[in-house]
Structure to design on (72 residues):
């Protein structure tokens, strides 16, 4: 049985958050409205973007530039 998207996110989140500029890892929809892993970056970072997979366990990885995130 394939892993759920929640399991895939949990398995990869800490590794992805260690990459420079990655500020969040979440679950959302890609452009085709399919479930996707959403990786948030504080700014465009070609080196980090090149290191991110295009998919994890069959789920697409979508990069979003969020800007810096500050705790409320």
């Amino acid at each position: 049985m394939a892993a759920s998207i929640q399991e895939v996110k949990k398995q990869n989140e800490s590794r992805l958050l260690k990459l420079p500029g990655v500020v969040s890892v979440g679950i959302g929809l890609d452009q085709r409205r399919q479930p996707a892993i959403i990786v948030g970056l504080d700014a465009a970072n070609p080196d980090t973007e090149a290191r991110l997979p295009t998919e994890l366990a069959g789920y697409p990885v979508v990069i979003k530039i969020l800007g810096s995130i500050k705790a409320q």
